[in-house]
Amino acid sequence: MLSYRHSFHAGNHADVLKHLTEVAILDYLLQKDKPLCYHDTHAGAGLYSLQSSQAQKTAEYTEGIGKLWHYQPQSPLLGKYLDVVKQLNPDGELNFYPGSPKIAAMLLRAGDQLQATELHPSDFPLLQSQFLQRRLTRIENIDAFAGIKAMLPPLVKRGLVLIDPPYELKTEYQDLIKGLQEAYKRFPQATYAIWYPVIERHSIEQFIAAIVATGIKNQLRIEFNLHADSPGHGMTGSGMLVVNPPYTLAQSLAPALSEVQQQLGNPASHYQIMQLVGE
Ligand code: SAM
Q: What spacing in Å lies between the alpha carbon of 166 and ligand 1's midpoint?
């Protein structure tokens, strides 16, 4: 049963980390004058109203994008990310927040491919409606891992695959590792960006260790913890595990995350960027 709806969480601190990383990777890939493919395995609804009853109920965005909205960034990457959100809110009020496929669509060139899978029966039509005018776009209402088999490798042999499950079920951790291995076998040139929550430190370290144990080379770990580890108190932070990161990724994210920590954080907040497996 699919009970997770991203509309309750859009724009929270985890989205800030995930989408900053996405912008950094796409920004690097877009420097080359060759088409790329963006593939989003768990795409969500694409665009979120922060005035919706769901967003207002949790108000999670007020602890994320809400704290950056009036901030003047120093780091070019944080500036690019905030510009994307500003484009959707031209009157200067923070009313809308983009999901990962929408961010990609706003950055990609007309000749780049966009692919996404989303299983939820209510979020899928919302997602699809965002991309009706876009060519070179394939949006499917199928399981993420069926999508990996059906849609990868793409015709163009460079790109980004974002893997962002809701982790509602314990089995999703193992499924992700199998899905990553399958995708990597099909499309080894791609950059893979996997989001993970920090809820219970020991279990997440086991999950990371299992990804490292796949033997897939060149893995970078990026993590932003809003609070100190605290089992039983929900999500205290989140991370991105990036396979085949652009060589500029750590360098561009570090100053952006330092500013995010200053704006969102508290004395217990911290971030880390660490090469887990070499090239
Ligand atoms: N990536 C989105 C973003 O950053 O804007 C948010 C995605 S949200 C964390 C996870 C999404 O995965 C939900 O919309 C959920 O309906 C969808 N989902 C859950 N299980 C799935 C599956 N097996 N295959 C495809 N989508 C799935």
A: 6
Distance CA 69, CA 64 (A): 9
CB atoms under 10 Å from CB of 94, counted, come to: 19
Ligand 1 atom with the shortest distance to the CA of 15: 4
Question: pLDDT at residue 108 above 80?
Answer: yes
**E strand spans, the chain:** 37-40, 47-49, 96-98, 113-117, 137-140, 159-163, 191-198, 219-225, 237-243, 270-277
Distance CA 5, CA 166 (A): 9
In the residue annotation, 164 being an active-site residue is answered as: yes
- Pair 196, 241: CB distance under 8 Å: yes
This complex has an ipTM of 0.99
Contact criterion met (CB below 8 Å) for 16 and 264: yes
Angle, alpha carbons 231-205-227 (nearest 5°)? 40
Counted residue by residue, the chain has a size of 279
If one counts every other C-beta atom within 10 angstroms of the C-beta of residue 213, the result is 10
Cβ pair 21, 193 in contact under 8 A: yes
CA of 72 to the centre of ligand 1 (A): 31
Q: Supply the residue whose CA is at minimum distance from atom 14 of ligand 1.
A: 44
147 C-alpha to center of ligand 1: Å? 13
Q: State the pLDDT at residue 231.
A: 81
Whether the pTM exceeds 0.90: the reply is yes
53-67, 137-151, 225-239, 245-259, range with the lowest pLDDT = 225-239
Domains of the chain plus CATH, in order, are 6-277 (3.40.50.150)
